[in-house]
Amino acid sequence: MPFIDRVTELQFLETKWLSGKAELLILWGKRRVGKTELVKQFIQQRFSHSCSM
Ligand SMILES: Nc1ncnc2c1ncn2[C@@H]1O[C@H](COP(=O)(O)OP(=O)(O)OP(=O)(O)O)[C@@H](O)[C@H]1O
Ligand SMILES: [Mg+2]
User: What is the reported pTM?
Assistant: First the structure.
């Protein structure tokens, strides 16, 4: 199933990642809204470039 939207959320995570500071994020939302999937998608996008040759 394709990952839909979450552009704003992914960009927000990217700014936090690049902030150069320690950051604490609380990811809150109702059940099955996509919290785990968002984090998985971010990690996949963030590290796919550095891992591929
Ligand atoms: N942006 C998205 N586009 C398409 N499918 C999605 C998206 N986000 C989540 N899903 C799908 O919706 C379902 C629930 O997502 P997920 O497990 O990430 O929710 P959750 O908020 O972590 O749930 P829980 O509260 O039970 O931990 C999963 O099958 C996931 O693949
Ligand atoms: Mg979850």
Answer: 0.90
